[in-house]
Amino acid sequence: MTPTALNGLKVLDLSRVLAGPWASQMLADLGADVVKVERPGSGDDTRSWGPPWLQDAEGRDTADAAYFFCTNRNKRSVAIDMATPEGQHLLQRLAAEADVVLENFKVGGLKQYGLDHETLCARHPRLVYCSITGFGQTGPYAPRAGYDFLIQGMGGLMSVTGRGDAEEGAGPQKVGVALTDVMTGLHAAIGILAALQHRDRTGQGQHIDLALLDVQVAALANQAGNYLISGKVPGRMGNAHPNIVPYQDFPTADGDVILAIGNDGQFARFCEVAGRTEWASDPRFATNAARVAHRATLIPLLRQTTVLRTTREWVAALESRAVPCGPINRLDEVFADPQVAARGLRVELPHPLAGTVPGVANPVRLSATPVVYRAAPPVLGQHTDEVLADWLRAGWPPGCERVPAG
Question: Could you tell me the keywords of this UniProt record (predicted)?
């Protein structure tokens, strides 16, 4: 069997929707045994976030939406009702066997079930317990629910995303995927791995308090740095870059091309390809700082030039001179791209109803302990009996509602 980085690690995943499941999928891809706890009858909220729906081998819609399949592979699903005393007892027993507990309930939401971090960490000092919330465990907003769209607005991302105020169609715009949730999931996985390293050295687990708002503000990166150092509030610039010119999209004879010119040498080579060598020596454009200062003059000149060739012609000519550029691909073009194909970014996993399910590969490439794609996202309750036998060496307990797989 292929060795995995996290072989033997047990993760009890009480999270749902995206941020928490994204973190646990990363751990599962790296080899952890992730047990996904779901509500009997309905499961993770994203199972119902369709259409589109997964189709079975006969082409009929199943009960699971496509959304669910982006973030739940390599996991085992158990259907346990934590609202019942029997379910709570069973989950407490599973937590006692786990190395990691991951949850994204509201602050204090699990205390009534005896599954909160204070209770479990006191009983099991080696436990790493990760809580994901909208606003964290402390502060005036701690009791509030948090959602990606809301946090993109509150955390500043939408203030710098979208067309500028002077342009047609101006206004704040969210990113096209739930990026704050995804980033929070990645930060959760990093925090969990750091806590496990600390536990291996000291024998002591810990509580990880992770907030979507914290992650979003931290991820403002250079935009936050620009504001904190200059005191000037950045605004929306469409696809332009606040610190680099030219670094945006430009029209071509048949579409658009992205220029991502990061230094003066690249700009000079672009000018040669474009037949405008005089721009490279023009004091208004010779350096990046000068191009930023004279953005309003340079960009229209570039647009007048880029429309003279097709996107394919620009990309071929500029790539031959090592000038960073590229097309703006639709998703069908993304998955047809030869580089995407060569990197194996589309994977097919076996599924008990559909036969196989397509997905996107994990981008982490480890030379000694690579990601192993063991299983597609599970059917609701598919592994309940199996997990009880593996983790607790027990069958289904009396008085606990049993949900058949599927």
Answer: Transferase
